[in-house]
């Protein structure tokens, strides 16, 4: 009887594992293909093939990479561009705090796993019901996305000259579009939607009057502003 139960559990685990792998590969392939747009945009913005590929190999966080090359292409200084990319990448540190508890990886593995702590791996891992499935989702998403993103970055950079004017193709919008598609389902509360909306207004509103990269930094003020207003509103409601 025990053997039958163990066999049934093994089959259930195997089916669940295959489902996680399928979903993780879907995310990895879908997002990894947008590395082509980054390669084209980066090369079109004046970065060399080596610089473009190094960004994907070492930085590996799409939104920050697009922000960096976009600011540089718009005439922003290196410090401003790097600062904007840095603040966009800070969110990965918060993902890491949660994932470190969920995955509980061995210490020797953590420095390597940190390279894969991004929006997509965090989304897949956090959506899983068990630690086993979370680990599988994290590894499969991270590996497939890292390999495909870097491959398509290389192909995009090599093909930039053949494509011509990258602005005419609108490929620079591919990365932000993917990021927004991943972010939108995560905005579940009114406060989260208010923060996102105010950040968009700040970023777009300040874009014509401030140097490239600075609007992104100031858009981060949306979070404390909305949280302060929300706390004040709740305090007034409690007094009544």
TrEMBL record:
It is found in: Cell membrane. GO terms for cellular component: plasma membrane. The keyword Nucleotidyltransferase does not apply. It comes from the Bacteria. The chain crosses the membrane at residues 20-40, 66-90, 136-157, 169-187, 199-223. It is a multi-pass membrane protein. Keywords: Cell membrane, Membrane, Transmembrane, Transmembrane helix, Transport. InterPro entries: Brnchd-chn_aa_trnsp_permease. GO terms for biological process: L-valine transmembrane transport. The keyword RNA-binding does not apply. Signal peptide: none annotated. Belongs to the AzlC family. This is AzlC family ABC transporter permease. The lineage of its organism: Bacteria, Bacillati, Actinomycetota, Actinomycetes, Kitasatosporales.
